[in-house]
Amino acid sequence: MRILGFDTATNACSAALWRDGAVVARRHEPMARGHAERLMPMILEVMAEAAVDFADLDAVAVTNGPGAFTGLRIGLAAARGLALASGLPCLAVTTLEAVAAGVADAERQGRLLLVALDAKRADIYAQAFAPDRAPVGAARALLPDALPALLAAGRNGQSRGPVTVVGDAAERALAALDAAGMEASASAAPGLPDAALVAAIAAARWAPGAASPAPRPLYLRPPSTTSPGKRRRRRQRPTPD
Predict the structure, then answer these.
(1) Are 38 and 74 in contact (CB under 8 A)?
(2) Which is deepest, 149, 167, 186, 206, by most CB within 10 Å?
(3) Residues 58 and 82 in one domain
């Protein structure tokens, strides 16, 4: 099985080729902007390194959020375009589960895992995962001081117990958990999604011939934009003398 995975949802751009149980080519570059310009060259690089043509692929996998609105649109549009042009299934993996997958078993043992990603606002994107890697509750956009309640829900109301935190908002999450008197430590794993893990997750849960509806973006809150009409009215509003 050959799966092309990629991610443009956060502060990195990555692409990877998974083949028969292992990632055989990978690119990962931190970047806040420029995903649209870098993604396709990166995809072509991993395809060339793996000596694989698009006709050889079995599926395409992409992160569908949560993340930056522009980044999500870039990745999803590219995935849908490649899948449509090649007649391939298009599989979705959330950014939170991709980051969680990078945490070593030793850091999960007997601990809840909290993934905390930067939402570019006061809140963060967060989700808890059990030691067996199963998600505990849905992904949420919330303020850091709401994290203890999120974790308590994952323990059936018991707020105490060790927690491992990973993600590019881990520092803010750890500060909030420390203020609440919770035992928490940072993971050594990268805090951003990696296409190598996106492809591996997709390969583990998808079987050739299985139905794969087109991925939809996972938005946890509306975009921080203002319509042109509202901006125009604000500019035309008279100022007091």
Answers:
(1) no
(2) 167
(3) yes
